[in-house]
Amino acid sequence: MSQHIAESAEIGRNSSWGFNCIIMGKVEIGQDCQIGHNVIIYEGSIIGNGVRIDDNTIVGKKPLSSPRSIFKVDPNLKPAEIGDLCQIGANVVIYVQSKIGNSCLIADSATIRENVEIGDLNIIGRNVTIENFTIIGNRNKIETNAYITAYSEIGDYCFVAPAVATSNDNYMARDKERYKHFKGVTIKDGGRIGVNATILPGKTIHEDGMVAGGSVVSQDVESEEIWLGNPAKPVGKVSEAQLLKNNLDKK
Q: Given 199, 216, 240, 244, which is the most exposed site by the fewest CB atoms within 10 A?
């Protein structure tokens, strides 16, 4: 079985790995982990107990930087961390200095960039991209092909449907003034966004706010309101039965 396991790596009891794995120096892997084939775990990465990582996944990847990029790579980025009981799908890329909490599911082909913090019990769907400097709370569902732009913040119990797009640059890459105004989206606790909606830079979905599918959000969505259209406008209130306080998952 072809593989490279660094002598300084620490691997817990009952953990296993497949063919062609590369586990680099000072990696820490907990007990009862399952590491698939062709997995690369870069220096210093920390993997909790009971974690499953499927084939061809990379943990701790260092970011690239174009000469044209306005942001330069910090040479002192910290290793990636994955909490206990996480399930990481195939072909996932988790960058250095990202931190994932406990009991998260990150599905096939998702990308988690550097400087991202993800809490506990989240579901990150297939081919989701979460860009850098983003903070995500607990018990969220971010579904297939959603794009979470850099400098975003998502609270707890939020729902982001498939193919939702978010953005952070009102200047669309022209005019140096844009450097002062980069801001992603904010989704407060219980916020929900329907399929194929677009959220423009800096906009906030307040607590229990709801954006209908296909909408383009160019203003902040107020708490417990339903917004629809292009541009989206308020069309009603979220029903009492749909409010987060009446639907909390205690598990």
A: 240
Q: Is 179 helix (H, G, I), strand (E, B) or coil?
A: helix
Query: Distance between terminal CA atoms of the chain?
Result: 41
Centroid of chain to Cα 193: 16
Asked whether 32 and 14 are in contact (CB, 8 A), the reply is: yes
Q: In what order do the strands lie in the sheet with 81-82?
A: 10-11, 28-29, 46-47, 81-82, 98-100, 116-118, 134-136, 153-154, 186-187, 204-205
Higher pLDDT among residues 168 and 139, named by residue = 139
Q: Which domains are seen in the chain, by residue range? A: 4-63+77-246 (2.160.10.10)
Tell me the three-class secondary structure of 139-178, residue by residue: CCEECCCCEECCCCEECCCCEECCCCEECCCCCCCCCHHH
Q: What is the pLDDT of residues 151-167, one digit of tens each?
A: 999 999 999 999 999 99
User: Which class for 152: exposed (0-12), middle (13-18), buried (19 or more C-beta within 10 A)?
Assistant: buried
Q: State yes or no: pLDDT of 180 exceeds 80.
A: no
1, 18, 49, 59, 79 from 21: Cα distances, Å:
9, 6, 19, 12, 18
Confidence of residue 174 (pLDDT cuts 50, 70, 90): low
| Sequence-ordered list of residues with C-beta below 8 angstroms from that of 149, at least 6 positions apart, any chain | 131, 134, 166, 167, 168, 184, 185, 201
Q: How far is CA 168 from the centre of its chain?
A: 16
- Residues 179 and 70: beta-carbon distance below 8 Å: yes
Checking DSSP bridges between strand 232-237 and strand 225-229, what pairing results, if any?
antiparallel
Smallest Cα–Cα separation from 86: which of 134, 121, 137, 43?
A: 121
